[in-house]
Amino acid sequence: KEKMFLASSLEFAEISGLNGQVLTIAFPQKFNFYKENLEHPENKKLIEDKAKEVFRQDLRVNFILDKNLREAAPPVETRKAQEGSLEDSPESSIIQSALDIFQGRIIKRSSS
Prior knowledge:
Layout lengths: L3 H7 L3 E6 L2 E7 L3 H7 L2 H15 L4 E7 L9 H7 L9 H10 L11
Parallel strand pairs: 2-3
Antiparallel strand pairs: 1-2
């Protein structure tokens, strides 16, 4: 609720591990943009604060890219928005993320 872009970015990640006080969150290789954005100090602090609420302990968050991690199916809300609106392509999840983040809509689709 505080930063929707962070929530949207985390939809493409999964918890890779919890080792002591370090929570590792992994992204598929092609989502480096989200990883880098979450690594900004103010974003990372907010995520660590939320992780503390959930896990009830101080945690440091570590973001990684995992070449073995496959892109997960988009959340139900995203799938509903995609039905009939975007072609099934590698770019479609990125386009849908932008639409979600900016509460946008497709006005005209070119036939390229």
